[in-house]
Amino acid sequence: MTKFEEELSSLPVSKSTNYAEYWNKAQLLTVFKDWQQQQALPVVPERVAGAIESIPDHYSAFEAIDLIKSKVEVFTEENKDWLQVYNWLCEGIDNQDTFALAFITRKYEVEKPQLFYLKHIDMSKRNSINDLYLKKYIHADLTETGEHRLSHAMSAKGMYPPKDYCAFTQQEIDSMQTGSYELVPVEDGE
Predict the structure, then answer these.
(1) Which of left, alpha, beta for 145 (phi over 0: left; psi -120 to 50: alpha)?
(2) pLDDT tens digits, residue range 115-161?
(3) CB of 52 closer than 8 Å to CB of 110
(4) How many helical (H) and strand (E) elements, i.e. helices and strands, does the chain have?
(5) First to last CA, the chain
(6) pLDDT tens by residue, 63-114
(7) pTM for the full model?
(8) Which side of the chain, N or C, has fewer Cβ within a 10 Å radius?
(9) Rounded distance between C-alpha atoms, residue 114 and residue 107, angstroms
(10) For residues 99 and 48, is the Cβ–Cβ distance under 8 A?
(11) Cα 46 from Cα 100, distance rounded (Å)
């Protein structure tokens, strides 16, 4: 029995009044027999969403996956950006099913990656007023030789710096040496 049917069966028996006639359960079930709860949209990473949008509509889901495989295997150098899409598809049948549903319906949500602040542990402990967070490189942080200068943003204890230049994805963090930093998850409202 569906949730709708359970809720319907708990309703009182129908009756008529001077103002309106209430439908009985059998009438309601007949009218709403095809009613189904709204299904959640499939969720795909941003790169996969880009791939879906770039593959023409006339491709089948199988042809789309085969195209991605060919791009990575045959024209490796020209299609390095497709490698992440291919790797995601290879992670398992669930990802392939999600891709197929998103590709066929062209209805999906783009996954928002978890962001983190990188709070410097020692420097933040020594400073009683501010915490120090790793800052993304910007042009002003280049040395005379064009190398990136390590830079930090200060923020009052209990406060966080702006996300646009101090928040990192897990993928960015994995490419760095972050031994002296604490990962602080960025909350949605920050």
Answers:
(1) alpha
(2) 999 999 999 999 999 999 998 766 555 666 666 566 888 999 989 99
(3) no
(4) 9, 7
(5) 43
(6) 999 999 999 998 888 888 899 899 999 998 999 999 999 999 999 999 888 8
(7) 0.53
(8) N
(9) 22
(10) yes
(11) 16
What residues does 133 pair with on adjacent strands? Answer: 119, 153
Chain centre to alpha carbon of residue 123: 32
| Other CB atoms within 10 Å distance of the CB of residue 74 | 9
DSSP state of 82: G
Backbone angles phi, psi at 16, to 5 degrees: -105, 145
Q: Which of 123, 189, 184 is nearest to 158 (CA)?
A: 184
Max CA distance (Å), the chain: 88
Residue keyed to tokens 């008529």: 16
One-letter amino acid at 27 equals: Q
